[in-house]
Every structure is written in C-alpha cells, then in structure tokens.
Amino acid sequence: MPNQLFRVLYVSRNRIAGPLDQLKSEVAGLLATSRINNARVGITGALIVNSGFFAQVLEGPRKAVEEVFEAIQQDGRHGDIQVLLATPIAVRAFPNWAMAYVGQSPRHQDALAWLQTETDFHTGHLVGERLYSIVMDMAYAEEAGDVA
Ligand SMILES: Cc1cc2nc3c(=O)[nH]c(=O)nc-3n(C[C@H](O)[C@H](O)[C@H](O)COP(=O)(O)O)c2cc1C
Questions:
Q1: Where is the signal peptide (predicted)?
Q2: pLDDT of residue 140
Q3: Which domains does the chain have, with CATH numbers?
C-alpha cells in the first residue's frame, strides 16, 4: 500500500566539518530544500541537529517517505545511519511541520546528551522509543514557545 502513512526515525553521525557557522549554514540550506521537497510529496517531520549527530522523523505516504529517505541516505553530510523506527501509522504526529527544526535550546541539547554518552551510537528499539518521545516533546515545546 504505497499510500499507507508511514513513519521513519533514524539517527546518523554528522559529517559536516568546520566551524559552527558552517554547520549552521549547511543546516539552513538543507532545511530550506527539505521543506520545499517535503511539502511537494506530503512529508512532514522534525530534524534535530547537534555537532555530533542528526536525528530525524519523516512521516507521510509510504512511497514518498521511502524515496526521500533513499536520497537522504546518499547524502555525504552524514553517515552511519541507523533506523530506529520504521512503521505504518494511523495519524501523523507532526502534521504542521514540513520539517520542524527542534532541539536547539540548551535544555534540549542536555536532554540529548545521553544518546552519545550512554549508547555510543549502539542503538536499539528502546533507544528509538526514548528518542521518539524526546523529539515529540521538543517539537511541541517549541511550537508552544517553551524553549528555555
Ligand atoms: C540530516 C539530513 C536530513 C535531510 N532531510 C531531508 C528531508 O527531509 N527532505 C528532503 O527532501 N531532503 C532532505 N535532506 C537532503 C537530501 O539528502 C538531498 O540533499 C535532497 O533531497 C536533494 O534535493 P534536490 O534534489 O531537490 O536538490 C536531508 C539531508 C540530511 C543530511
């Protein structure tokens, strides 16, 4: 069922080298591209970035999610991609965001530190569930303006 709604959550290692400014401008560019492409094919989701890794939720018609995720996997700006969730869904969790950019506040960056320190990127099902709930909290906190 290519039109079945589908969700993917993955983490990857950030391969963008150079100073923070460069990371910021690369991320701004990829968010702009993502929002245009995703809106066209019906994908919504959220992206988390820190200096070490990316985490991203993609939701939408299964075929569209698979095609965009295929392109994302070819992107040299990251590597070691690990899929934590890949599942059909009944409803979207991020209906309002072609690609939300979340997790930049100090509190949220602290909330993500465990991903590197505790797992050293050896992830599994439990990590997926935990990370998914953190991404959701971040997205909703940011929409509510509660980002301290
Ligand atoms: C961490 C990360 C997340 C990305 N997320 C998306 C996305 O949600 N949608 C998208 O179209 N491209 C995304 N990209 C960019 C794709 O890898 C690719 O550059 C883009 O789809 C090419 O689009 P274009 O053919 O329109 O230039 C992402 C790249 C990275 C590194």
A1: none
A2: 77
A3: 5-144 (3.30.70.100)
78 C-beta closer than 6 A to ligand 1: yes
Question: Is-contact 6 67, C-beta < 8 A?
Answer: no
State whether the beta carbon of 30 lies less than 6 angstroms from ligand 1: yes
Query: Residue 7 forms beta bridges with which residues?
Result: 59, 87
Per residue in 85-104, pLDDT tens?
A: 899 999 998 898 899 888 88
Cβ of residue 27 lying under 6 Å from some atom of ligand 1: no
Q: What is the residue type of 36? A: I
Q: Please give the distance, rounded to the nearest whole angstrom, from the Cα atom of residue 30 to the centre of ligand 1.
A: 6
How many A from CA of 33 to the centre of ligand 1? Answer: 7
Count Cβ atoms below 10 Å from residue 122 Cβ, excluding itself.
8
Q: How far apart are CA 30 and CA 77, in angstroms?
A: 10
Q: Cβ–Cβ contacts within 10 Å for residue 28, how many?
A: 11
Name the residue with the closest Cα to ligand 1, atom 9: 34
Q: From residue 68, give the alpha-carbon distance in Å to each of 20, 41, 44, 51, 52.
A: 26, 9, 11, 23, 22
